[in-house]
Design a protein that fits this description.
Number of strands: 0
Helix content: 25-40%
Strand content: under 5%
Structural class: mainly alpha
Order of helices and strands: HH
Radius of gyration: 18 Å
Number of helices: 2
Distance between the termini: 49 Å
Length: 76
């Protein structure tokens, strides 16, 4: 795979290449969520960019906190 990508972006396929990951943004795809970021499937929450409601690390982190607080409330 890296050999093929090296043809498009020379230098990718190298002994110095450590790790490559894919970043996918779903800004235009927004799930239907409650205020607590629960999906239409009970007890399934969506956080970060995958939910389509955040655009940065701070917002993505806060979405995790919102979900964690809701889970804690439900456990009480």
């Amino acid at each position: 795979m890296l050999e093929a990508l090296d043809k498009v972006a020379p230098g990718i396929y190298s002994k110095h290449t450590l790790l490559y990951g894919v970043e996918v943004k779903f800004y235009s795809m927004r799930l239907k969520l409650t205020n607590n970021l629960e999906t239409q499937i009970k007890n399934l929450f969506a956080a970060g960019d995958g939910a389509g409601v955040t655009r940065g690390l701070a917002q993505a982190s806060v979405s995790g906190v919102i979900i964690a607080r809701e889970i804690i409330n439900r456990m009480r």
